[in-house]
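Repro case for the chain-ordering regression, as requested:
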Amino acid sequence: MATVGSTRTPSFLTMALLSLLLGIGVLFIHSASTAGDTTFPGYYAKAQLIRIAIGVGIFLVFLRLDYRRLEEWATPLYTIGVTLLIVLLALKVVRTGPSRWFYLPGFALQPAELMKVFSVLLLAKVMKPSGATRHASAQGIAPFLVMGIPVALIVLQPDLGTALVLVPVFFAMYWAAGASTTRILGIMGAMVALLPIAWMGLHPYQKSRLSVFWDPAGADATSGGYQIRQSLIAIGSGGDTGRGLYQGTQNRLNYLPEDHNDFVFAIIGEEWGLLGTLTVVLLFLSLYVSCAGIALRTQEFFGRLVVVGLTTYLAFQTLVNLAMTMGLAPVTGLPLPFVSYGGSSLLTSLVSIAIILGIGLRPVRTVAPDGLQSGTSPILHLGRTRR
Amino acid sequence: MHRSRIQFLVLFVAIAFFGIAARLVYLQHFRWAHYHVQAETVRRSIRYISPPRGSIYDRAGRPLATDVPTHEVTYSLQGVENARTTTRYVARALSAQGSLPDDRRVGEDYLVHRLHRIRAAVRPQFAVGVTPSAQLWLGGVAAERLAALDAAIAKYPDRFPGVVVSAEHRALFVEPAQIFAGEVGVLRLARLAGVTDLDHYYTEHVWLPYQRARSIENRTARQWAFEEERVLCKDVSFETVVDVSYNPDTYPGLQIRQGRRRTYPEGVVVGQLLGYQGRPTPTHIESWKANHQLLRRSTDLSDIRTFLAIRGGSYFDDAQVGMTGLERRFESHLSGTAGATIHEVDRFQRESGPPLDEAPVVPGRDLTLTLDRDLCVMLQQEFVDREAVAGSILIATPATGEVLGWCSFPGFDPGNWRSQWDVLSQQPGSPMTSRPQRSPIPPGSTFKMLLATAALQEGLLERDETIECTGFYDPNNRNHLRCRNHSRALTDIDLETAIARSCNTFFYVLGGRRLKSSGIDRWGRMFGFGSEPGPGLGRGRPFRITHAESAAIGKGSVVATPLQVLRYVCTIANRGVRPVLHLTRDEAAPGERLEVSPWVWEEVILGMEGTVRFGSASAPGLGLRRFSCALKTGTAVQGNKDIAWLVGFAPVDDPIIAFTIALEEQDLHGGEAAGPYAAAILEWLSEHRQLPLLSQEGNR
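-- result from build under test --
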């Protein structure tokens, strides 16, 4: 029985799930990048291991951090993120080319990735009810502004995939915060109606990526259709038990471009088969369900909403990536959290999961409108086991 | 905050994950076979191997046509003109990491365009062997893009040959010697091969094919045009093979491949008979297509069983096929069956590892002819030594029909006739024509034995009957149908004298008054005129007698190929068995016996013996009396020159050889012109093949 406000370690299960996913990621990044003919770890796997080491350091920092400090920092962090995005846009105008990265020594920073976390934090803050009105903040214009600004800036980069992740995150948080269902459906309807206008604003390569999703056969080798076709062949040819680690021909013979990156799941499918893919899917689902459990356990509004937002972001990105490798979604360039090769994405995912777990470690005493303290009322927690 | 809403969200995500799982089960369990076949198909690439062609040997196993393994230098446009591939990598590295270039200024097409301009500027320098310095490829590049490119170069130096990044100038330079290394390698090879006009050589072999390949609209065809293995240099020297094999960096994109060259060791000897090889004509291609025999090298079969099923009797569109002569007639026998290996290839169609599967090549079968090579060489030499213009000599074993000696003069060397075409096309005597098969000529007086046989057998001539010869057939028309073959003192001519001295009047009477056209026609066909003397030996012209008198002395409407005459002579030598002439033992067939009484043959042969004893080939200077032989001379008019004939067999009683000699463009009569040839042949055969051809007189 933990005491309120104390610091515990996160559950063994969650950490095990996370470690397994990271480990599988490193293994298949090695398989995808070297085809087994160089000794472990090789260039890519080594780079990923270094990133994981850095990420774990940051993870521990965020795990120790009292999340209520994040509520205080939400506005400044968000401001920094937006500023970075504006600077990138300014650079884009100067350089006349897409710009998504800041090149730091030994590291390329992608502000859009960080912005996912910052936006969730500020959204949770602005949606938090103030005073006696329980749902007032959820009805105002502020959440739309908080979400709309980064989405617009990221779309302009252009990085449609990352921007699209923020939309379901927003809706999940908005709905969980108590917004009326009819209102949310109305907004969604309006957005769908605006899609044709958005289509006109897309870049040609984005259009081609989307159109190959509808017509994969008409695509040539350099566009997304080729990748999806090769990815499907890789997954499908894996069968029940796979071809064995390092044995995938689609992987070994380089038929699948970006296989250590966005399409790493296809290699898992090819080399480990249905057994491997279902295991990975189960690992992800268990991780997110345990995160959802934290959301349900958390009584404090800001914390709970942050958990909902970050879990939605991770789950949505996972689902979109998996769907993409199976030809169910267009090629968006969204990596598979914890598994794909990549710096900013891995870092953001680890920071997100650290914040979620950190919140889970600190059930905060809250004063409910009925005057009872959270975590103390035997009535509110009836039928719930808290050890 | 609504707990139920969060629970609903969890449910929503869980359902989505179950959807993903369901899709995985569908793809990996139920659709496994489909995708497995696709994966297996995409990774396999077939490499076809042309079969070595069978050799052609003479009766003693001496080579007449053989395939000699050679070395060829090959290249693919992709390998030699690699600038485009490099450009793609540069464009990719310059644009934001991993994504496609949006900015036209660093687009691939622009870089290629710039590169072509650089090439145009430096090509004149290359052509004279000067290596130009680094050239500006792209200026004003953002620093972090250059940094990204630099990192890419550090990671994969092989992908960026000759690309130089200058952070100081914020520009991209290119070393022409490296990015155009393929070009330099080709030129180096050309210089080694002694080519003088290097610029022209490169344009011809690489640049024009490259331009053509670029303009192909169909994507697959274009890709194939870039990947196709092309022959740059055939039959390269040992030094070149060593140089190219051991210095791949010096000759990037060039490869050594085993090639084959058809050689004809005896050159011009029996060249027309053997024929030559060549690239298939559109007619060939069409007929192969119609018979489903066409294999295209670009056909990408992923299964060796499919290949095994279709390869029999099939041809590649770039195969060498027999175009004429025996090379053509025995094409299916000689050509063999193509083989193939299936290799694992990566995305860039590069082979990796040992072959996964292979269908061994089945070499073409050898062909052994009945010809005696040395005899043929000797015959050819006779023509050359005696400065003949044109003609043919054929020698056969009458009992079996085997053709032993063959010479058609002038001839050509099937190994290199193309390079000598200018000379050959101007040469008199049409050297490309195989005379024994394809040149029907009047047989002249050699035809007379046919009339004698026919008349005796049909009872139109008594055994000792004589016919008066006054020098004219028709006293009322003395300018027509004359006989000047023997002295005027001789007026009453019997058959022996008529044949030996070749009396025309005797045979005008037999033909014109007794046998008539229909009789000559019937007997001509019996002796095989107008029909094929053996498989593949030519039919000549249809045999039809219109004027009996001129036909009686082998002129007018009578024309025959030397091979038809040879069979006719063999039939007499066999005393009535008409053999099937043939060039390979497989084609041997039993002869056909003519319904002629044996005494008839002896009467006719007696006359032929007389030719040597006292007749038209009896001049001591000819040297034929030493041999036991039965001959017949003939002279036929061809334009304003004569064709000198001498046919016969030896020895008389049990003939081992029969021969025909036909010399065109002659001023002398048959015996005078052809006699020395016959003597040389008989002499050579007795000496070198120990044939018992000498007469008792000769033996003494």
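Ordering looks correct now. Confidence is low (pLDDT under 50) at residues 1-7, 216-223, 371-387 of chain A.
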